Amino acid sequence: MTEVSKKLLYWTPRGLCLAFALFLCLFAADVFTEGLGFWRTMFALFMHLIPVFAVLLILALAWRWEWLGAAFLTVLGCLQMWLMLLRHMPWQSWAFIAGPMFVIAGLFLANWLKRKELHSGR
User: Fold this and answer.
1) What phi, psi does 121 have (nearest 5°)?
2) How many domains, the chain?
3) Out of 9, 13, 59, 63, which residue is the most buried by the measure of CB atoms under 10 Å away?
């Protein structure tokens, strides 16, 4: 494995997980159009950002223990698919929300499986 591919495998799941958290933040912006008061808007914003906090917590754990990131993101993706199935949401919703979680989980799994090779040059 070349040095470039080692760095790419190491940083890609971390960067994508952070980008996914930022993507989820976009869905919280709709609370500002509801015309609630300040405190109710702040509470609604906090409630909408709970999934973002969960993804960032998973990222913090996965930074050190990649297998935890793979496991938790897989579970979170399955939970999201189940919730969308209960609400009869279209498959596009599944692809944009649960899909990236499974891709990032796979990358963290690959990172964990290649851990010795990735950290041999450090």
Assistant:
1) -90, 0
2) 1
3) 13
Q: What would the pLDDT profile of 47-64 be if each residue is shown by its tens digit?
A: 999 989 999 999 999 999
**Residue keyed to tokens 């080692």:** 6
pTM: 0.84
Cα-based distances in Å from 89 to 82, 93, 101: 10, 7, 17
- Rounded distance between C-alpha atoms, residue 82 and residue 94, angstroms: 10
